Amino acid sequence: MPDAVYVRDAFARIADRYVLANHVLSLGADVLWRKSMAARVSDKRPRRLIDIASGTGDLALEIQRRCPDCEVVATDFCSEMLDHAAKRGVRRTLVADALDLPFADASFDAATVAFGLRNMADYPSALREMRRVLEPGGHLWILDFSLPEGILRAPYRFYLHRVLPRIAGILTGQRDAYEYLGGSIESFPSGKAMERLLASCGFEQPSSTALTFGVVSVYQAMRPR
Prior knowledge:
By secondary structure, the protein is α/β, with parallel strands linked by helices. The protein is built from 9 helices and 7 strands, in the order H-H-H-E-H-E-H-E-E-H-E-H-H-H-E-E.
């Protein structure tokens, strides 16, 4: 599992260049990935949503745009990242640890986390905390990296471990923060493994959808009614 202190420090160091680095390293696909997830969220017409590990607020902003009547609360344990989220237009931000959210049980009818669960120190504890703050029947969506299958797997892993850290180092001046990325993706449960983890943490109807040939995946699950 990732080291929380290292992760917080790494994100604080790259906060100023985080959005630019994401767009360049994904060739702009990160925008489409978040739009795809926000569209799924908007279909459920949430009233109050928590965006966990919101970072610079990319997903929260897209959900605000698609769901203008929804109260979106963006949380992250890195204040430097949330400063950027607020400046970019996220209406409500709160510095909070995903493993110990400062909200009562059943406070939200929807929860999202994009590219954040993978960086948390304890996946099951984080998922159980997300379940706690969701009301019965509330929905959880997770967007995160996965590894493609078939002939794309080897070239993608080469890019992930050899090319991406070099480009990111040039863009942010913090190459080590992105050398960590490849290892975290390799060890993160994806596909059916993530569905099983969600079920074991008390969620029902877990499902997964691969995007961009499996480079990322969207997961959806529900707190039982």
